Amino acid sequence: MSTLATSTPDAAEMPAAPPRRRWRWLRKNPTLVLGLLLLALMVVLALAAPWLATHDPQEIDPLARLQTASAEHRFGTDALGRDVYSRAVWGARVSLIVGLSVAVLASVIGTLLGLLAGFVRWADGPIMRVMDGLMAIPGILLAIALMAVTKASLTTVIVAITVPEIPRVVRLVRSLALTLREQLYVEAAHAVGTRLPAILGRHVLPNMTAPLVVQATFVAASAVLIEASLSFLGVGIPAQTPSWGNMMAEGRNVVAVAFHIILYPGILLAVTVLAINMVGDGLRDAIDPRLARQL
């Protein structure tokens, strides 16, 4: 009877172990928690822009030009009398859409090309020479060149930023593929007649998840910065569209008397990029089994 009595509490405590382990893991990953909170805040800001904005971001009020923060205009107004707070809130949508779209497109296209270069020997040379050529041109210059021959829009900006980011993913995936194709389990799958798509799906791609996720976050953060840079230079999102880059470009001419026009979109841009990078570092620790065992 005593044996049963002592074993029952232990069995009852066993289901509580996973929550304790998750809480312990979260306490040891403050970077991921803080990054997710900041990123979630920016996502809520973007999704709830129609309700959070206090004014029409396109509304011009010449009588309210260059006003500082007040009860009516929380972040002040710009040179045309438009509400800076409302434009900053709507600008979050542009940055997050560009960052997410570029990260997904670059990761998908780069993964396909990288696997092709790593597992199909005759395709390795041509693919990597094209990637080397793209990487020889600075990403921002290549994006500007692509925008110069297209019509300014959100879609063309996404495409122009995606093209320079693809080689980074291709090189990463190719290097991982060259290592993984020599592993015994991959050779064993080849030996038993498993087709290449099945090998890639079952054995190769799962072992690339952690570095690909981290790389995707770097690509997203880079895309947000490049989009702001293109808009700041006047070759990105159309000038009338509220975006953080456009707002800073409009405020540079009056920065001496209205610094707030640049300050608030700059802070939001910095927080967004920081949050994405923090999430990437935290996810790397969570997905990589070698790091997870240390927690």
Report on the structure:
It is a single chain. The chain has 295 residues and is mostly helical. The chain has a single domain, classed as MetI-like (MetI-like fold, Orthogonal Bundle). It is built from 14 helices and no strands. Helix 3 packs across helix 13 and helix 5 packs parallel to helix 13. The chain starts with a helix and ends with a helix. The N terminus is likely disordered.
Short structural summary:
The chain has 295 residues and is mainly α.
Query: How many individual β-strands?
Result: 0
Q: In total, how many domains does the architecture comprise?
A: 1
Spatial shape: elongated
Report the biggest beta sheet as strand number plus sense, adding barrel if it closes. Answer: none
Give the CATH class. Answer: Mainly Alpha
Report strand %.
under 5%
Q: With helices defined by DSSP (H or I, 4 residues minimum), what is the helix count? A: 14
| Low-pLDDT stretches | 1-17
Topology pattern, helix = H, strand = E: HHHHHHHHHHHHHH
